[in-house]
Amino acid sequence: MTDWLASDVAVVTGGASGNGREISCTLAEYGADVVVADLRMEPREGGQPTTELIESEYGQRAEFVECDVTDSEDLQRTFDAAETLGGVSILVNNAGITENRDFLDETEADFDRIIDINVKAPFFASQLAAERMIDADHDGRIVNIASISGIAGRGNGVVYSASKGALRLMTYALSASLGPRGIRVNDVSPGVIETSMTRNDLEMFDSGAAEEYATTTPIGRVGTPNDVANAVLYLVSPLAGFVNGETLVVDGGATNSWGGIAGED
């Protein structure tokens, strides 16, 4: 296996389950030590905690930090944990929440919660990471996990679409701000990915919505966490050394093909 990331320390928010778990393990597979920041250590889908899996399967160092990404002290503790491993050089802002709600039923509390987690938290996590990357003179990389709902609006998730659109534009602005300081910033925008969130919280598979989505993709299926993790791996690897301020859409072609829809990551 290529040790593309052998000198890197990655922080993955929401790294205990779903896409974040797969991202954490994939980065470890390619040589990174990983700080998994999440509200709970146990993966929602079951199995070994992600940090234990990283250590046993890939032989990399891993630390778990119980972290509410909207809490500045928790974020500080997360990056302090990265310092014990050598200092953050990769940040994946993966933690996020979604919704399936009619616009007329949205409340101010709904709005604030989604924006706080999906926009405000990545902003300040990126700021803390960038400060440390610059101080340590690291070749820094930040990847935000956005969504195709931030490209094509979704009527039953207006606040969610607004938050992911904001995150995508934040990515571009950060790339302009941090690129001259040696930090590349990109985003991955998934379509429907089969995770506990889409299966259990949104009930997309029981309702048939996921199957309907699959018919809109030229590839004819929904995505997997591995699809998202491989996209992140590319963006933080040496292969993407001249890629900055870009959106990598991982949706099987649904958004840009005839009959494409705005799905849910």
Automatic annotation (TrEMBL):
InterPro entries: KR_dom, NAD(P)-bd_dom_sf, Sc_DH/Rdtase_CS, SDR_fam. Residues 8-191 form the Ketoreductase domain. SMART domains: PKS_KR. Keywords: Oxidoreductase. One of its GO terms (molecular function) is oxidoreductase activity. It comes from the Archaea. This is SDR family oxidoreductase. The lineage of its organism: Archaea, Methanobacteriati, Methanobacteriota, Stenosarchaea group, Halobacteria.
